[in-house]
Amino acid sequence: MHVDARERLIDATTELLPRDGYSAMSPASIQRLARVGQGSMYHHFSGKAELARAALERNADTLMVACEAATRGEGTPVQRVCAYLQRERDPLLGCPVGRVAQDREVVEDERLREPIGEMFAALEQRIAAVLAEDARIDAPTELAAMVVAVLQGAYVLARAAGERGPFDRAIDGATRLLQTIDKGDDR
Amino acid sequence: MHVDARERLIDATTELLPRDGYSAMSPASIQRLARVGQGSMYHHFSGKAELARAALERNADTLMVACEAATRGEGTPVQRVCAYLQRERDPLLGCPVGRVAQDREVVEDERLREPIGEMFAALEQRIAAVLAEDARIDAPTELAAMVVAVLQGAYVLARAAGERGPFDRAIDGATRLLQTIDKGDDR
DNA sequence: GTCTATAACTCGATAGAC
DNA sequence: GTCTATCGAGTTATAGAC
User: Fold this and answer.
1) Given CB atoms, is B24 within the 8 Å cutoff of chain A?
2) Which run of H or E residues covers position A151?
3) D4 C1' – B41 CA distance, angstroms?
4) Rounded distance between C-alpha atoms, residue A141 and residue A123, angstroms
5) Considering CB atoms only, which of A117, A146, A150 is closest to B161?
6) CA neighbor of B76 nearest in space, from B134, B147, B144
7) CA A5, CA A119: separation in Å to the nearest integer?
8) Rounded to a whole number, what is the distance in Å from the CA of A1 to chain B's nearest CA?
9) Which of A66, A52, A42 is nearest to A18 (CA)?
């Protein structure tokens, strides 16, 4: 079985984006990993930006699906959001999408920023909707933004520390705090 | 009154680091802003990395001082931590220190990662110490990590969205949640 | 559709005059 | 201590053969 070059290029970019970021990810490295030549890459994509956008959209989809799966489980709304927070992640690598949101080139190119902004907005909305199922929780919108922010910030701290400790502490702190507002009696 | 070239170089780098990140910040732009020539810069510093480290240390010091000032005020421990969260910031620019913590070149160069990691550790410790003043708060260490993470994540969300909305929501959510554990009777 | 060669540019850093 | 000229490497992208 053999996937075509276009597909392999997106696969490779999907893998390299979180590792190198956008600016530091060179077309040469993509071509190497995808086992695709220079000319081939520029045949399928107009350039690095278009390829990165395709890969970002794919990574964003994957994360959205994972969020929906994690929050669809059993338990109170708060418990389901906590389950999402506790998901398996690789803190030292960085978030496959958020990792590049600090990159200046990305933020200044609307085509690249768009899929990232949309994913975070969708994540926030999804989590807010789950929390809103419990009518006694006020400000579900703000709590949802906080949940997404804790995750992204936890990645930043882990990378800055060179170890996952701060990541786990931050997630743990957020989980504990959320549980204190969970009355846990609406199942 | 006239500051020497060395000082102007650090000043300029201090300003450019949060704006451009590390990789995208070129020595040429530093020289332009500092009104210092190429040769002069390489006379005072061994290169871009050494200059960036000096600037990062300065930015980290500034932020630590601001955190200590904000948490030294009136009110319960939780109120003082919330006051720190609510400090005036420029979400679309990015944190003067955390902004570069995602950069691969920075993370892989111990000389650059060190001052960043140390600042976050110090922030966490400071906030944990404040929260620990209230003996009824459990897991002050984890809550402190969460507070620092929320801030860093809020920056990420704002840059990804291209507007400060998500930043304000995340800070607001964290503030509200923290206030729910504040019994507010130990002053 | 894929290849190789190379253009056009920018990067960080160095050399050597003054 | 500061200047200008330049190096060598690496960048994204294009040209043109196959």
Assistant:
1) yes
2) helix A140-161
3) 14
4) 11
5) A117
6) B134
7) 27
8) 35
9) A52
Q: Is the pLDDT of residue A186 over 70?
A: no
Residues in chain B: 187
d(C-alpha A37, C-alpha A29), whole Å: 11
Smallest CA–CA separation between A37 and chain B, in Å? 26
In B50-138, DSSP assigns E strands to none
B91: left (phi over 0), alpha (psi -120 to 50) or beta: alpha
Q: pLDDT digit string (tens) for A97-110?
A: 999 999 999 999 99
pLDDT tens by residue, A27-79: 999 999 999 999 999 999 999 999 999 999 999 999 999 999 999 999 999 99
Residue B148 to residue A157, Cβ atoms within 8 A: yes
**Calpha distance B144→A99 (Å, rounded):** 23
Q: What is the model's pLDDT at position A3?
A: 84
Taking the Cβ of residue A99 and every Cβ of chain B, the question of whether any pair is shorter than 8 Å is answered with yes
Terminal-residue alpha carbon distance, chain B: 48
Rounded distance in angstroms from the CA atom of residue B16 to the C1' atom of nucleotide C15: 28
Reply yes or no on whether the pLDDT at B183 is more than 80: no
Mutual orientation of helices B5-20 and B48-70 as an angle, nearest 10°? 80
Kindly state the tokens that stand for A11: 């696969």
pTM score, two decimals?
Answer: 0.96
List CB contacts (< 8 A) between B107 and chain A: 159-160, 162
Side-chain half-sphere of A80: how many Cα atoms within 13 Å?
24
Partner-chain contact A173 B20, CB within 8 Å: no
Give chain A positions within 8 Å (CB) of B160.
Answer: 98, 101, 107, 113, 116-117, 120
* A164 has pLDDT over 90: yes
| B56: CB partners within 8 A, 6+ apart | B17, B97, B100, B112, B115, B116
